[in-house]
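Researcher: Next entry in the queue.
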Amino acid sequence: METAARSAHIGELNERSLHRALKARYAAPGSVTEQVVDGFVADVLIGDSIVEIETSAFWGLKRKLPRLLERFRVTLVHPIARDRYIVKQSNGDAPATRRRSPRHDSIFFVFNPLASIPALLEHPNLTLEIVMVAVEEIRVPARRRRRDWTTVDKRLVEVQETIRVSSMADLFDRLDASLPPTFTTRQLATAMASPRRLGQQAAFCFRQAGVAEICGKEGNALVYRRVAPAVAAGA
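Model: Structure for this entry, 235 residues:
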């Protein structure tokens, strides 16, 4: 327990601004933060419910979430930057610069981290909250290359929208209506207006969650189709 408590303290020291801001937003009156539960550190504990805030990959949750879900209802919070501002801070006396980035991520970027734990989204005690945000990316000059910049922090500017997802089917339902009954990962990416890689991750998540299945091939490309809800539920 002492090791877990030490990990909780270290976790707080290593938090970036975006994580701290979201944790403060979800910490309701009567809740406790950085609480050790079953050997794991929970971001926010509210009675028999836990809020876990993950701003990047989900692979670190593979052991943690299944244990917590045995006893608690867990809300997994993941921010996605719909809008971002690049703030460059030089090492000298020059003032920082701030510009708006042309990059705008969509809700479907959640498939990148979700590919680490796709089947867990079907657990009845787990709810995913995708928080669409505007952030500031704080960049400083890289040490080894003068012309390169590295991101050292992300700051929350505003929360624009919160989307609750209770199953992989909820995400499938948000796809463009133009997605045909059978589809490839390229068509899936097009329906999401996203890169091909994201289409591949989405197809993997849908398969692992029992929402879609392989039904053939077109050349070297696998062809998928949605599984009827009754079949996906094991009926």
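Model: The beta strands are 32-37, 40-46, 49-53, 73-88, 97-100, 126-141, 149-165, 182-183, 212-218, 221-226.
Researcher: Noted, moving on.
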